[in-house]
Design a protein that fits this description.
Length: 364
């Protein structure tokens, strides 16, 4: 189940608001070059990374490029643009996927998928309103992209609530999108409690007011510090299994950010404990029938993070950014994960982690 594979993101740095046909032709041509030049070495392709969160952040909130929104942005319309862009993203992905299947798959034998950010939603209270709000959150955040990929259209609650602001798939487009993802790429870091806010104040529409919820999440966006909630990941995998026909899933990102000095970074026991319980949650989901094929830790080494820059450290390898050579040093988690992949069960559990830390200190 745990694979070390090569995945390439055909990443759109910016989905413009120009005509959808232009976007599709540009993106498909770009994908064609990537498939042709790298396809002999790549077996897993992800067309667009975090398609749902990218769209919300860029065209509803305006916090990532191109920074469009109805609020404190130079331009934009949060009531319509997220849905238009999301629609174009799905069609661009499906077009690239069709190209691969028609032109390259028989020769290269790879797979093409879309990547989605999956939050583990739970109702804030046991009230019926909050339970319904949690389901709306799943439909708006995950079903928005996943339902067309599996069933060929948007979730009913989105079509009913958003109305004419939500683009419609033609019959041909629906067939193009449906089944266009050979697996589902999942990125998971956080859980969120959901509170119902419907009925909301009339006269203003954006993604959140359409969804009719408020979220209390378990992450500090500024520091990238998230609570340890492995049940949330297990719940996401179970939900995909039950609601979307149990498609193949690869967890493309999951990991823990840590701050501190070099010494603290090296002895990153909290990261090991985090990975231990999250990988356990994945195994639980698989035992319960989830068709989860792989799990990737974010990240191999400390890198630039989109919202946090070089502050948050997710890597198994420490990178000294003050050194012109960018010296890399394995953290305790790198040794633990290497042993785990080799089947060394002696390092599992609290006693095994303590022993690893003792050995690491002695060798250092």
């Amino acid at each position: 189940m745990l694979h070390c594979t090569t995945t390439i993101y055909l990443k759109l740095s910016r989905m413009t608001m120009e005509a959808g046909s232009t976007v599709l032709s540009y993106f498909t041509a770009y994908a064609d070059v990537c498939f042709r030049e790298f396809g002999s070495h790549v077996k897993f392709w992800t067309t667009i990374n975090e398609a749902n969160i990218f769209t919300i952040g860029s065209y509803n909130d305006g916090i990532t490029g191109p920074g469009r929104c109805s609020g404190n942005c130079m331009s934009g319309n949060s009531s319509t643009e997220p849905y238009i862009v999301g629609h174009n993203l799905l069609l661009a992905h499906a077009s690239a996927s069709r190209l691969y299947r028609q032109k390259y798959k028989n020769m290269q034998g790879g797979s093409v998928a879309l990547s989605l950010y999956a939050i583990g939603f739970s109702p804030a209270t046991s009230s019926k309103d909050d339970e319904m709000a949690a389901q709306r959150a799943r439909d708006f955040y995950l079903g928005w992209m996943l339902e067309p990929l599996v069933y060929g259209d948007y979730p009913y609650v989105m079509r009913k609530t958003v109305g004419s602001r939500l683009p419609k798939f033609s019959e041909e487009e629906s067939e193009l999108v449906k089944g266009s993802s050979d697996f589902i790429g999942i990125i998971h870091y956080l859980a969120a409690n959901v509170t119902n806010t419907k009925p909301y104040f009339p006269g203003y529409s954006d993604f959140y007011s359409d969804c009719g919820i408020t979220l209390s999440n378990t992450c500090n966006i500024t520091t990238s510090q998230c609570a340890v909630t492995p049940w949330a990941l297990e719940g996401v995998l179970e939900y995909i299994k039950q609601s979307y026909g149990n498609p193949p899933v690869y967890i493309l990102e999951n990991g823990k950010s840590m701050k501190g000095d070099f010494q603290m970074q090296q002895k990153d026991t909290p990261r090991i404990e985090y990975l231990h319980v999250y990988i356990g949650a994945v195994f639980n989901a698989v035992r319960n029938g989830s068709d989860t094929k792989g799990y990737f830790i974010w990240s191999f080494m400390d890198v630039y993070e989109l919202l946090g820059g070089y502050g948050p450290k997710y890597g198994l390898y420490y990178v000294n950014f003050s050194d012109t050579h960018l010296t890399r040093s394995p953290k305790l988690s790198a040794h633990w994960y290497s042993a785990f992949l080799k089947g060394d069960t002696t390092l599992l559990g609290s006693q095994g982690i303590a022993q690893l830390q003792s050995n690491f200190s002695s060798s250092s």
